Description:
- This protein has 267 residues and is α/β, with parallel strands linked by helices.
- The chain contains 11 helices and 9 strands.
- It has helices at residues 3-11, 26-32, 38-44, 57-64, 71-75, 132-141, 149-158, 173-181, 184-193, 195-217, 238-258; strands spanning 80-84, 91-96, 102-108, 111-118, 121-124, 143-147, 166-168, 224-227, 262-265.
- The strands form 3 sheets. Strands 2-3-4-5 form a 4-stranded antiparallel sheet. The chain has a 3-stranded parallel sheet with strand order 7-8-9, covered by helices on one side. Strands 1-6 form a two-stranded antiparallel ribbon.
- The longest helix is centred in the C-terminal third of the chain and has 23 residues, at 195-217.
Amino acid sequence: MKFAERILRTFRHQSIDQIVWQPRIMYWYNHTVRPTKKETYDKVKQFMPSEYIGKEITQIYDDLRASIRYPAESLGLPVFYSQENKDSQITRRGASLPDGSHILEIKTPFGTLTEKSRNGYPFEHLVKKVEDLKAMEHIVSQSSYHFNELMYEGAEEALEDYGLPCSYYFRSPYMRCVLEYLGFEKTVIMLRRHPREMEQFMNFLDDWDRKQYQNAILPSKLKWLNFGENIDANLSPPRYFEKYLVPYYEDRLKWIHKEGKIAFIHV
Length: 267
């Protein structure tokens, strides 16, 4: 069997000749095999088998007899992309700070939001007070998701011997609040102190989410999809999981299964 057949048969609870192994090695690859600076190489070479020096990532997957899951990560072929309206009245300005972190400033007609991050991960989120929700809502409302058929065809060809093109995309409203807009602590506090405003904001995100499913996710050629949620019991404890996440997954899975597609979740 080829990897693509094994993947589909696994999700359909059908027999396969061997288990599919899909290690996401791109982080290791990008920091060990790919570095061109000698000082960087000297630091990381202990983490790399000598026979992998100069190898393409597909050659390493060949050696591991492994499958590639996300063409965007491993091959630079994203099948979805986000686009902002030209007349959004949104301006962005970024700058590096002396401590090595990065600050992003987003100006909207409803106020200015700032985010501080380090190594790509925010430690100060965009939404800091209930008044910021309006500006965040405007930012989201001016964006839309799209399926790139040309990229998909390229990914399908590149993955012929490695798997089946798959992609994650936007998170559920609750997890977007936790991981992208407010952070966990602020999300929980705001749900307690400003439940009406937070519920309205998450309902807005849900409506936006539905439109993207109808316009981009469901019509896409992808046969399997990933809820890229990054869930764990600390960020989505049972009470929140049952209230905000279970209904969301059940709702979306009905649409996905109706289109003959498969879905799984990042937990």
